[in-house]
Design brief:
two-stranded antiparallel ribbon
Amino acid sequence: MTMIGKAIVLSMGTALLLTAGSAPKEYPAGEVGKMVKLGEDIALHTDTHPLTKDFVGNKLNCASCHLKGEDGKPGTAGSISSWLDTGTAFPAWSKREKSVQTLQDRSNNCFMRSMNGKRLVIDSKASIAIEAYITWLSEGKPVMMDRKGPWGPTNMKIWPKGIKHFKPIQKKATHANYLSGEKIYKAKCASCHGQNGEGMATFPPLWGKSADGKWLSYNTGAGMSKLPKGATWIQLKMPLGQGGTLTDQEAADVTLYVDAQPRADFDLQKALLPKAEMGIYNSNVRKEKHSVRSNFKALGLDIDVIRGDKKIK
């Protein structure tokens, strides 16, 4: 890895620009400012906030993936998953939904997947507050609606290239890569995320269930459960404060290990509230299911062979 100005050049051979900057210095005045502050609070405490806790089915917050920058605000950390220019890209095309999505659609859908919960009610106070906060982070930047995917300009430079790069590496995965990933996890990840992926203190859980049988982390419909996406994010952001230090193979192997662990299946129909309560679901895809097994099969991998056991349903 080498540093060139404000770009990190990883072994994936792509210069990935860091989003240099922070949130605006002042909140908007009046009711708009109150809504922005509410959205920020929700992003930091999504699983416990009164407006969103009933829609979350794990122990994650928006800030678990959209990391805090030097200003301490969620989504202002540079590089992948930054929110600093996300608001400029919407409405945007979504290949997954096969429709043009609003920023509210995008964040509401995350509750079904990364939060392992239910989709927020469209135009609810929580939904508008999250949109207000993310939009505020893009204040002053030029609007350029995304024709290719529901990402801001920074993430548009990163996600597609990372996925394309890691997919052929992970298609070759073997049980030996799983064992390598386990060693990397124990050496570089477990001190924050726990030996069994249960999370520690403010560090988020990565898999498994709590003592009372509730799922702790993202389900198999989340982006992080897809091996190429997970490896792209992990290589750029982890270990915390040392992003870019894992080689391609290390990032691929530790992602393989993490995503081969037990986690909740995803069933789109079960994640949607009744139409009378939720409102219109803006998607042309109405049926979608994923499991750990199907996510691995999508890359031609047998989860039993990769793990060396038959513990995954």
